[in-house]
Automatic annotation (TrEMBL):
NCBIfam families: PRK12665.1. The chain crosses the membrane at residues 6-24, 31-50, 70-98, 110-130, 136-154, 166-187, 207-229, 241-260, 272-293, 300-318, 324-348, 369-387, 407-426, 447-473. Belongs to the CPA3 antiporters (TC 2.A.63) subunit D family. Residues 130-417 form the NADH:quinone oxidoreductase/Mrp antiporter transmembrane domain. Its main location: membrane. This is Na+/H+ antiporter subunit D.
Length: 499
């Protein structure tokens, strides 16, 4: 089944080329995009099944075997990320089509939107499947170039300004990443991840720490960890709702994925664990304090996005199997819930004309469906039992308690505080936007079905994570065990031979 491995990258790229040739034919573009992303989701599910039952699937692109050629690897972690990201991108695409129809295509010019969106999808999937550092860099650059276009769609002053900041920050992280790649190649003679396992271990500790630090800095900017996150709240909220949603759900998680992959595979042993734990604590607490201070729903959600990245660093920094498994579970939860909340914010903006809390009110009465679409993922984000947010946080707390260190206990306390403040932040939104008396300008009305349906699908999917938490956590545990052993990854690439 190795022929399936390149398809999540190839299909969106071919779809992007096809939709680009269909400029001026929005119905054909929509059909192609929906077909491609549906097929990508089905292939991703198949990859998750086969990687769980048969082990990692490896493809040498063009027949050039590792370490000379480009290798794509679908292990359990990569396949799980593919499934979640494919489901999210498909739902957001349907939402964007509904918004385009409701707004007369003014917010999302379809001739540009569809090919760019598919290119973004290809960049994300390529990053997840990359078996070498340079191909990981290529995946980042593909998705970043596409994100520049999506972020500035419409050409408004605010979007151009936000896009400029985003471009500068992204280029900075890319330069750091590319410099690290050059230094690693100079020190080891390879960029293949499986071959780097042995060669990096042979380097002096000081040099390894420098290379590790550079990669963490580059990925930390992309993942928006504190203090490298100030660009995000000013960039994401200016974009159209579907663009903001897919950015919030996926772009920062690609950075987190890169941290998980490199820290477990290339730099095991916890040399940077203290840095990750401290950064995770600061990201959680400072991020949620920023959310509490906001009066706009999109900016508030942007700060909660930053804050909950800290939970992921918490799990990775513990360097234990339970901590890593909990972090993997929480990645799946966070991608789903943050995307859902930003889609709900788009519905609030469509219904109320704004996401500023002082201009909203009475939405629970005027639009009960919208109230449910916001409330369920909001409670999930806050970690209210029995939702998946509670299960993921409980796993991280258990991992921290099992560690028993002072810093781990501080993270446990910080995680609980962040969860309580998250509940306060979303309760404040609920009180101001949904409960209080609505402004006279707001009248009862119906929401576009094509915007409600994908949002509802993600709400159901997020709630369903509770019912499949056992199997999902088991997959995360198996992935964590494989990541920590490292030998299975190396053997899957080189077939048991010495790299």
């Amino acid at each position: 089944m190795t022929f399936l491995v390149p398809l999540p990258v190839v299909m969106p790229l071919l779809g992007a080329a096809l939709t680009l040739m269909m400029a001026g034919k929005p119905r054909a573009q929509r059909t192609v995009s929906l077909t491609v992303l549906t097929a990508t989701l089905l292939v991703s599910c198949a990859l998750l099944y086969f990687s769980t039952t048969d082990g990692s699937l490896v493809v040498a692109v063009g027949g050039w075997e590792a370490p000379l050629g480009i290798v794509l690897i679908a292990d359990q972690l990569a396949a799980l990320m593919l499934v979640v990201s494919s489901a999210v991108t498909l739902c957001v695409l349907v939402y964007s089509i509904g918004q385009g129809m409701a707004d007369g295509h003014e917010e999302t010019p379809l001739s540009v939107y569809h090919p760019t969106y598919l290119v973004l999808t290809a960049g994300v999937t390529n990053a997840f499947l990359a078996g070498d550092l340079f191909n990981l860099y290529v995946g980042f650059e593909i998705l970043l170039v596409a994100s520049y276009v999506l972020l500035t769609i419409g050409g408004t002053e605010n979007r151009i300004r936000a896009g400029s900041t985003y471009v500068v920050v992204s280029l900075l992280s890319s330069v750091i990443f590319l410099t690290a790649i050059g230094l690693i190649y100079a020190a080891t003679g390879t960029l293949n991840l499986a071959q780097l396992v042995e060669r990096l271990d042979a380097l002096p500790d000081g040099l390894r720490l420098i290379l590790q630090g550079m990669l963490l800095l580059a990925f930390g900017i992309k993942a928006a960890v504190f203090p490298l996150s100030s660009w995000l709240p000013d960039s994401y909220p200016t974009a159209p709702a579907p663009v903001t949603a897919v950015f919030a759900g996926l772009l920062t998680k690609v950075g987190v994925y890169a941290i998980i992959r490199t820290e477990t595979l290339l730099f095991p042993g916890g040399r940077a664990a203290v840095v990750l734990l401290i950064t995770g604590l600061l990201t959680m607490v400072i991020g949620i304090l920023g959310a509490v201070a906001q009066s706009d729903i999109k900016r508030l959600l942007s700060f909660t996005l930053i804050s909950h990245i800290g939970y992921l660093l918490f799990g990775v920094g513990l360097t234990t199997q339970l901590g890593l498994a909990s972090a993997i579970f929480y990645v799946v939860h966070h991608i789903t819930i943050q995307t859902t909340l930003f889609l709900a914010a788009g519905l609030i903006e469509h219904r109320g004309g704004s996401t500023a809390l002082d201009k909203l009110g009475g939405l629970a009465k005027l639009s009960p469906v919208l109230a449910v679409l916001f409330l369920v993922p909001a409670l999930n984000l806050a970690g209210i039992p029995p939702f998946s947010g509670f299960i993921g946080k409980l796993g991280l707390v258990q991992a921290g308690v099992a560690d028993g260190g002072v810093l781990a206990w501080m993270l446990v306390a910080g995680g609980i505080l962040t969860s309580l403040l998250t509940l306060y932040a979303v309760a404040r939104v609920w009180n101001l936007a949904f409960w209080r008396t609505p402004p006279k300008s707001m009248k009862p009305g119906r929401l576009p079905a094509l915007m409600v349906a994908p949002t509802l699908a993600l709400v159901v999917f997020g709630a369903a994570l509770t019912f499949v938490a056992g199997p999902l956590f088991e997959v995360g545990d198996q992935a964590a065990e494989s990541l920590q052993e490292r030998t299975a990854y190396v053997q899957s690439v080189f077939g048991g031979e010495t790299p």
